[in-house]
Amino acid sequence: MTRRLARSVLAIALALTQSACWSFQFGARGFVPSEVQKPFASDAILRVNEAGVAWGNGGLGPTVQQGLLSAGLFEHVYYPVEPSHPPELVVEVEALGHIDHAGAWATLAVMATVYFLFLPAPVLPYFDDYRITCDVRVRRGDEVVREFQVETNSKVVHAILADPEHFVPEARERVFRDLSDRIADGVAQTKLASTSP
Fold first, then answer.
1. What is the pLDDT of residues 141-172, one digit of tens each?
2. Which of 166, 161, 156 is CA-nearest to residue 123?
3. Number of alpha carbons in the 13 Å side-chain half-sphere of residue 27
4. Which burial class, exposed, middle or buried, applies to 65 when counting CB atoms under 10 A from its CB (0-12, 13-18, 19+)?
5. Helix or strand or coil: residue 170?
6. Element (H or E) spanning 48, and its range?
7. CA–CA gap between residue 114 and residue 106 (Å, rounded)
8. What is the residue-wise DSSP string for 78-92?
9. Which residues contact 188 (CB under 8 A, 6 or more apart)?
10. CA-based, 20 to 30 A from 164: which of 30, 53, 156, 171?
11. Cα–Cα distance for residue pair 136/94, rounded to 1 Å
12. H or E element in which residue 76 lies
C-alpha cells in the first residue's frame, strides 16, 4: 500500500511540475507597412547597432534587411558587408532593448510559492516585457534625409518553472518582425524622388 501511495504522490508531483512550465505571449503581432509602388532606390546599405539588446542574439539586422527587401523599398540591401563602391543611401538603426520582469509581483509570487510548498506554482503567473526602441536614420551621403523612432514589445506570461529557452526566442522573433515592418514603413515615408532609378 505504501508503494502505491508513493507512486501516486510521485505522479501528482510530476503533474504539478509539468503544469508549472506553461507560458504564453501577446503583443508585437506584426505591423502592416504602407504599400510601395516600386523601389524608390535600387541599392542601400543597412547598418544596425544592436549591442544595446542583451537578449537579441544578433538577429535584428538580418530581420530588418529582409523587411526592407520584402516591402519592395530596394532591390539590394547590403548587410552586414558593405560593397567597395557603396550606394549613396544608408539606413542606420540603433536599437536599445529592455526587459521588465515585474519585480514586485515576482517577489510576492516566489514568497507565496515557497510558503505554500510549491502548491501554487502551476497557477501563479510571472510577467516579462521584452521591449526594443530603435532610432532610425536615412542618409543620402552625409545628409540625414529622415530620422524617426520605432518601438515595440512582446509580453510573456509564464509559470515559475517555464524554461526561458522556450519563450524568449518567440518573444525575440515577434519583436524583431514587428520592428522590421515599422522600420520599413518609416523608410518608405522618406522623400527620395530624386534618387529614383
1. 889 999 999 999 888 776 666 666 676 778 78
2. 161
3. 21
4. buried
5. helix
6. strand 43-52
7. 12
8. E-SSPPSS--SEEEE
9. 33, 34, 36, 40, 71, 73
10. 30
11. 7
12. strand 76-78
Rg of the chain taking only CA atoms, in angstroms? 23
Q: What is the 3-state secondary structure (H, E, C) of 108-158?
A: HHHHHHHHCCCCCCCCCCEEEEEEEEEEEEEEECCEEEEEEEEEEEEEEEE
184-197 confidence digits (pLDDT tens):
989 988 875 444 44
Amino acid found at 96: L
Considering the entire predicted model, what is its pTM? 0.72
Cell of 100: 521588465
All structural domains of the chain: 2-195 (3.30.160.150)
Q: Which residue type is seen at 138?
A: V
In this structure, are residues 68 and 184 in contact, taking their beta carbons and an 8 Å threshold?
yes
C-alpha grid cell, residue 3:
508503494
Give residue for cell 536614420: 137
3-class DSSP assignment, residue 47 = strand
CA distance 122 to 125: 8
**Which position has the higher pLDDT, 34 or 20?**
34
CA pair distance 125, 18, nearest whole angstrom = 15
